[in-house]
Amino acid sequence: MKYMLLIFNRPGFVEELTEQERDRLFGDVDSIMKELTERGEMVGGEALVDPSQTKVVRQKDGLPAVTDGPFLEAKEHLAGYITVDCESIERAVEIASRWPDVRFGGRMEVRAVLDPAGTEM
Q1: Looking at the domain assignment, is residue 120 inside a domain?
Q2: Residue 24 placed within a domain
Q3: Which residue would you say has higher pLDDT here, 54 or 22?
Q4: Tens of pLDDT, residues 30-48
Q5: Structural domain count of the chain
Q6: What is the 3-state secondary structure (H, E, C) of the chain?
Q7: In terms of residue numbers, what domain contains 35?
């Protein structure tokens, strides 16, 4: 079963860390990614740019309305994602619970991926 693990954290939190904390955070990410690759569970993933470079598209009066992000009231943003292929949601949750951003006040959202027919993969 494929799961998308959505990484949410506070904008700018990495810059607030000490060099040692940053090194540990990125080292832990590398270790988890290596483990997932070796186990054949890693499907893919990407980090996302800062929300200040975001565009939001909505419909207004029947036409697309584009605004810049982020919204000032946002306390966290979608920072990236990884997609894994593992045996159960419990395993996906276990992976998400080890993600280093969680230690620094971030959160992970675990969602099953639907196949093109609209059923879980």
Answers
A1: no
A2: yes
A3: 22
A4: 999 999 999 999 999 999 9
A5: 1
A6: CEEEEEEEECCCHHHHCCHHHHHHHHHHHHHHHHHHHHCCCEEEEEECCCHHHCEEEEEECCEEEEEECCCCCCCCEEEEEEEEECCCHHHHHHHHHHCHHHHHCCEEEEEECECCCCCEC
A7: 2-112
User: CATH number for the domain including 65?
Assistant: 3.30.70.1060
From the list 88, 80, 91, the residue with the least C-alpha distance to 44 is 80
Q: Is residue 19 a part of any domain in this protein?
A: yes
Opening angle at CA 81, ends 22 and 58, nearest 5:
120
What's the confidence (pLDDT) of residue 74?
65
By DSSP bridging, strand 63-68 and strand 77-85 are: unpaired
Q: How confident is the model at residue 77 (pLDDT cuts 50, 70, 90)?
A: confident
Taking every pair of Cα atoms in the chain, the longest distance, rounded to a whole number of angstroms, is 51
Q: Are 7 and 77 in contact (CB under 8 A)?
A: no
- Residue 56: inside a domain, yes or no? yes
